[in-house]
Amino acid sequence: MPSSFPRALAALAALSLTTAPLAAQTAYESVDPFIGTGGEGHTFPGAVAPFGMVQLSPDTDTGCVIRECYGHAAGYRYDDPTIQGFSHTHFSGAGHSDLGDFLIMPAAGESVLLEPGDAAKPGSGYRSRFDHATETAQPGYYAVTLADAKIRAELTAGTRVGVHRYAFPAGTPAHLILDLRSVLYNYPGKTLWSSIRIRPDGTITGSRETRGWAPARKLFFAIRPSTPLTGHAFLNREEKIDYKGFQGPGRGRDDLDQLAGRALVARLDFGKLDKPLELQVALSSVDEDGAIANLDSEPGGFDAIRASTRTAWEQALGAIEIEAPAPTKTMVSTALYHALMAPSVFSDADGRYRGPDDQVHKAEGFTFHSTFSLWDTFRAEHPLLLLVQPERRNADFVNSLLASQQQSPFGILPVWQFHGRETWTMIGYHAVPVIADAYLKGVRGFDAEAALDAMVKSASYGPYGGLDHYMKLGYAPIDKEPEAASKTVEYAYDDWTIARMARALGKDQVAASFEKRAGNWRNSFDAKTGFLRARKTDGSFRTPFDPTAINYGSDYTEGNAWQYSWFVPQDQAAMFGLLGGDKAAVKKLDAMFDFDNSKLDYSHAEDIAGLIGQYIHGNEPSHHVAYLYAFAGQPWRTQERLKQIVESQYKTGPAGLSGNDDLGQMSSWLVFTALGFYPVAPGSNQYVIGRPFVDRATLNLPNGKRFTVLSDGLSATNGYIGKVTLDGKPLDRSYITHDELSAGGELRFTMQAKPNRSWATSRAARPFSTSTAR
Q1: In CA terms, which of 254, 418, 465, 737 is 20 to 30 Å from 753?
Q2: Burial environment of residue 169 by CB neighbours within 10 A (0 to 12, 13 to 18, 19 or more)
Q3: Which CA distances in Å does 581 have to 521, 533, 575, 732?
Q4: Over the stretch 424-436, which tens digit does the pLDDT of each residue have?
Q5: What is the DSSP pairing of strand 745-752 with strand 706-712?
Q6: What is the mean pLDDT of residues 168-193?
Q7: Which domains, and CATH codes, for the chain?
Q8: Per-residue pLDDT tens for 225-242?
Q9: β-strand partners of 320
């Protein structure tokens, strides 16, 4: 959609999200891919199919290094003035930069520049200025006019194929620049090797191996243009191998049909064209032949691929039918769109893929996926996918995790994996709750016994993250392991999900062992201060202690004691008991949200965004906290806090996300919250009721059933739940079960202006906690 559309919606955001007229657009039409491309959302506006291997999108700046790359983690930033080119791989909302593989940029004229140039100096290179008024973005489609060369660029993508279409000025020679040097998160020596060649049939193939966030990552490509080449030049820009004096066709190294090196750039000539040039590009982690086979697996030109991908997106987005005012529908539909990009397909059409051991494997009976941002996505992204994607897709995710564990040199499940490679980023072994939650919610199609074995191995691998000390002491000691306080509570939660799956499989001995470990959170909780704290090997708490301090490599992971002291999703009731009971817990929750930050400076911490007091919505450890009032018998306070969060943290337009989307977790939080419930503890098979933000929503569930949420009387002034019914019967508890949801039916909220202080307040009405489970 045109960039003017998100700007117009930004004006509408000033209106209440529940007072504007209901939107008549479909979910597909409501999506705005520009949401999150400004601020710190780190999303990209380019073309991608649901869970597609190819993410074909514009890169506005690829020259950043190390920390400077944070704002350009997705390649595109809305406030940049130029486009450097269009590359084929991107993360959606990651907190780290990488990818940007195989950048292509069209050029017109007799002379072609082969360096990107300076964005501040027009004409200094092949990059081009552009105007947002010429941009269009829809799921699976992106277009822009490159102002300097007057070229209209269009992009679309299938599962393993990206397709470009370029309309060049009439009567002007058309060229493409293929820059194999261009990468996101750049530094000297990142490209270890690259190659390019022209095959006898005119197909252009090649490869690149890089060392970046993921080590020794190999990727291959195949390019098939709609018009034969009239000329070309391959150059190696490595120091001492630079072919100086090259300016354009007929000069330089245009006699080579193949070249290898560490700094390759190619000029591809097509002469004067009387119709747009189309370019089909496929990727493979295996080899060039795999990329060619992937090209052949998705035949058809630009329009055919675009139509097919539109159909795929309409079907995927149709999993939730939403009735809401236009701004709300745009935000929620876009959130669902962002949640359906990853984990991405990574096996070729024939099932082959390159695994964590850098060897080629073949997926038998499933499609191998990668791009698992598990520290983020175990919370809401994967639970959402269990509701909106077929069982086969969710089984593919689990089988991919299990295959990676079997192929891992260390025999453990992925931590933060992309393109089959492990980055060792973040903490915990959060593939475990993803697998357990899937199994406990009925997903089959994978070996459950092997899955449990993989989960136990991951939780028992001593060299990883201080697990040897954790298993011995019952906590991770800070004098032996950084971020030890966070690791202790995250390990304990993961251990609880192992116990839950073991019980379901009848493995009582395993279950008992991990149920005991699940209580280890107590060992780092300081009842005297009311905070989770890091302990040393001798058992003492580390001092000095400042619960507001955020420093990387310290006691906590991307947060402080305020956020992490609430991370006991498996037993919130017991944690509240240590705080002094329900009233004390509510008082502390209020203190967190109402904290005066005016004298604190968190500018050194990239991921600390979206602050409401010491609640940090722009990062994941806080995401369940607003729902905790329900565990203390005050669900109306959850309703108040959710309104505060949604209205301050989500907007239409490029700056619509308060923090990086983290492969769909920020977006998944909004989807669940808009529906009126949230999975506080994946593995419990419960969803904690918050309050709805849409007038009506229908989930078209994977089992073919339909679950409808209705919000009677919802408005800007009616933000509290008066009563709830499930299939017409009163529901006087602050949770629903997965079985109730998956059975289909109707959840009806009656909204009112004042809080109902009697609804769902009894202990029996509260969500699951291990210590109070009946």
Answers
A1: 737
A2: middle
A3: 18, 20, 9, 22
A4: 999 999 999 999 9
A5: parallel
A6: 88
A7: 31-313 (2.70.98.10), 318-772 (1.20.1610.10)
A8: 999 999 999 999 886 444
A9: 699
